[in-house]
Structures are given as structure tokens and as C-alpha cells.
Amino acid sequence: MELITCFLLLVSSIARGQSNFVEISRQVGSRKGYWSPWNYWTACSRTCGGGVTFRTRYCLHGNSLTDLSHCQGDSREYSLCNTEICPDGSLDFRRVQCSMYDTVDQYGIVRHWIPVGGTDDSCLLSCEKQLNNIQRLSRNFGIVVDGTPCSANTQRGVCIQGQCRTVGCNNQLDSILQLDSCGVCGGSNNSCGTFKGTFTITLAGEELYHYYEVVTFQPGTRNITVEEESEVNYLALSVGNAYYLNGDWDIHRPSTFTAAGAVFTYDRRRDGYERIWSLGPINTVVQISVIVRAKDPIVLYEFYLPPVLSKGTADKSNQSSSSISNSFVPNTVDVRESSESEPLNKPDISKNGLKHLEQLTKNVTAPQRKISEQYETFNKTRNPHHRENTAKRLSKTERRELCGNCEKPKGKVRNFCLSDFVVRAIVLDRSIIRDMTRYDVQILQTFTNKVMLFSREYFWVPNICNCPRLKIEREYIIMGNRVESPSTRENLLMIGPDKMVLRWKQEKFDLWNNIQSTSSTKCSKILRKEQRKARNKRTP
């Protein structure tokens, strides 16, 4: 009867796949136990991308289970499985796990949980969901599924039972072997060519708001890194005619995704710095573009190619650059792209193309405006993310002495017609940068936009006097113009001292709709009047 009971408990423990074992009898004395044969391997925890399987064994003494301390070694053995890359377009594994907790609120809106990066414990499932335009809720759902990468920034470590375990390039757990930059396991980076390039282009104002091709990566390319530092430009990635990142003017959040048979990581900081990178290798052509919203964009890139492709790339690069190294192993090629790049096909500015805009109006050519001296106080540092936030907010006394009273512009229709954008937006954050104030806003609705706008934008005010007075978490009607910073040559969305900012009131919705619907006729008259004034000023 005891043997039957032992057998049933053993079968039950195996079926559950648990590591806690049922102790039938504890042997007292110095005699050691012995291990049972290994059980079958469990099902893989993932279907692709590198899962984990395990098998167990039991410490026995005689015909019964005994305490694990009586046997030397581990009772569970882990191994990697299904290590092939997931198909293109597959969701990040952490995102899949977070989505298991998606809910539908009382209004029928699905609230999606998405991964949160930067947590201290890389094997915890930390997710967040958007509650409204401002608030987010973060939650820890325990440890991740076995086989989840420890971090989006590494593919050489997986989580097992809540602990990060290193994985060698030989797909063995706890191995220290690593791929070199050429993709050779345990190699020394001497079997491929290294290429570094800088993309620059000089554009006129009418050439902005296009996708421009930066670089095309050929199949076999490894260790791809692309960086861009502007606050207003965005990188985009496409394979063939399909965009995997920031296509059709739809800007993505930082994420990990699969394209061209490789895993790519997209990172973007609050200061605008962007980075795309992948260990590769890619199995088809990948194109990197830049959405240019400010003049003179600069994009840096680096990649590695095997010998055959390296020679071809070096030969091709020599046709347009005189600073190319002819050596191969090791080979570093510096390429500076020509400034005669043609824009890619620009997506139509439509409601479908601009998913965040509720209303769109026809573009009206605005009179050319010169940037005034008060706009020229922008920090002259070339790299935006190096700008120091050293300015202190003024006290009430300092504000009265230096700023005086905030003047309130008049004339809604005139302001409407002379503005490059009129939007309804909610203020999310406020920062003082040198002698300017920067507002992080969420655009809820546009009444006119002669410039391309995204759902999240930075609006600038050329003072630190809190004029106009914008409070965080409040909605406003905001008018402004696109101006060029003379130091960085970036296009800034500026709320000048002559621009109107009004607190949003739902009962005024019909008023703004009426101004928008009649703007074509009224604005043409106002613009002609402004042009006559400008001509009269130039006439002595």
C-alpha cells in the first residue's frame, strides 16, 4: 500500500512540474540517497525567440523519496529551446505578457498594459497603462515567464525562476562565450569590415516635412547602430514598402520589434535623442530614413559586414567619397553622405495619415516672418540633449521686477489667421531651458495647422516670466508660429508675445468651429492687409 501511495504522489508531482517535492520519509543517519532517472523535458516556454525547458529528478532512499540534502547535485536541469528568431512583426515577449492583463473600462475602451523599462529587477514584469491624457498606472505582476530576455538591451541573458542567467553564443546557459562584432562565436573582430557614416543634408524651408533616406543595409549586416539627436526629427525603419517604425507620420514609443529576421531596439529619450540598434544579422534589405522637421539634420550610423559585402560596399562608397579606407581586415570605412538626397514619397497629409488630428484645414501660405531677437536666446549648443537646464524659475518679486504684467493679445480672428497652428492641447510638463520656457503638450484637436504636428509636441515661449500663464494638467487654445532658431537651425513651435492663449471652455466649441469654417474668406483679407502694411514699412 505504501508503494502505491508513493507512486501516486510521484506521478502527481511530475504532472505539476513543481520544484517542491513530497517527502515520504526522512532517513535519519549517515547513509546517502541516490537520484532517480531524469524525467522527460517539459514543453518549451516559448515558440520562438529562445524559450526554456527543464527536466527533474528525485532524491531516493530505498523505495521512497527523501530530503534533497541527501543527494549531491541539482534536482532540476534547464536548457534553451526554440532559439530561432520570431517572424517579422512579432510582438515583444514582455508586451505579450503585459497584454494578458488588458481590461475594458465602463466606456468600452480597452486599457492596454505595456512594459515599463528601467526597472531595478530585470526579471520582474512591470507594466503601465494610460488612465487619461495625463495619468498612468504602473503595476508589478510578479516574475516574467521563463525564457524572457533579461533586458531589451541584451539578447545574451534570460530569466529563469525570476533570476537572470547568462547565455553564451553557443546557446548554453551560464556560458561566457560571446559573439564578436562579425558574428563569430568567440571571435576577435577580424573577419569583417566596419563602416561608419554621417548623413547630413542642407534643406530649404519648403523641403522640410519629408522622409529622407539615410542608409540602406544589405542582407548579412550585423551590429547596426543609428543615432539622431534633434528634438524634432525622427528616425524611421522600413523593409520594402512596409514601415516597422515611425511610418506614415505615426510616431512610435520606444520598443523592441522584429524585422528582416533580426531583433531591433528603438530608444528615444525626452531630450529627443534617438537610437536604433540590432545585433543582426538581417536577411533582407533594411532602409533607415529620417523625418526632417528642422534644417540640417545629422544622423550617425555604424554597421559590420562580412568580407564579400564589405568589399562591395567599400567600392561603392569610393564613388561618392574620397575618405574611404581601401584595407579590409580590419576595415573601418567613414562615409559622409552627399547633400543632394531626394525626399522619399511623402505620405498624404490626411486624417488617416495624421491619426492624432481630429480636424484638418487647407494650408494657407503665411507671410514670411523674421525671427526676432528675443527668440535668439536659445542655447547655442549643437546637440539638444546636452542643453543644461540651469535656469532658475523666478520668484514672484523677480517676476514683477523683470517681467512686469503679462499683456493679453486681442483679436481672435486676426491671431487665428496669422498663426501657423491653432490647437486645443493639454499641458503635461514645463521646463526652463536657458532663457526660454518649454512646454510638453498633448494635442487634442487642431483648428488650423500650416505645419506638420504630432500628437506630442514641445511648445516654446521666449521668456521665463510665465507669460502666457500655462498650468500643468489644464486645457488651452494655443496659437503660435514655426520659427527657426539661428543657433541650432531647428524649427521651433513658438508661442510669441503677440500670440493668444485661452483657457479651453467646451461652451466655446461652436465659436472656434465657426472661426475655422469662415477662415478661408476672412484670412485672405487679413493677410492682404498685413502684406500691404509690410510694403508700406519698406517704402521710405
From TrEMBL:
**A Pfam family name for this chain?**
ADAMTS_CR_3
SMART domains, alphabetized: C345C, TSP1
Protein name as it appears in the record: A disintegrin and metalloproteinase with thrombospondin motifs 18
Region listing for Disordered, in residue ranges? 313-352
Query: What segments bear the compositional bias annotation Low complexity?
Result: 317-327
Q: Which domain of life is it from?
A: Eukaryota
Molecular function in Gene Ontology: metalloendopeptidase activity
Q: Which cysteines are joined by disulfide bonds?
A: C44-C81, C48-C86, C59-C71
GO annotation terms (biological process): extracellular matrix organization; proteolysis
Say if the entry is tagged with keyword Secreted: yes
> What region holds the NTR domain?
403-523
UniProt-listed PANTHER family? ADAM METALLOPEPTIDASE WITH THROMBOSPONDIN TYPE 1 MOTIF B, ISOFORM B, ADAMTS A DISINTEGRIN AND METALLOPROTEASE WITH THROMBOSPONDIN MOTIFS PROTEASE
Q: What are the coiled-coil residue ranges? A: none
Q: Where is the composition biased (Basic and acidic residues)?
A: 334-352
The cellular component terms of Gene Ontology attached to this UniProt record, alphabetical and capped at eight, are:
extracellular matrix; extracellular region
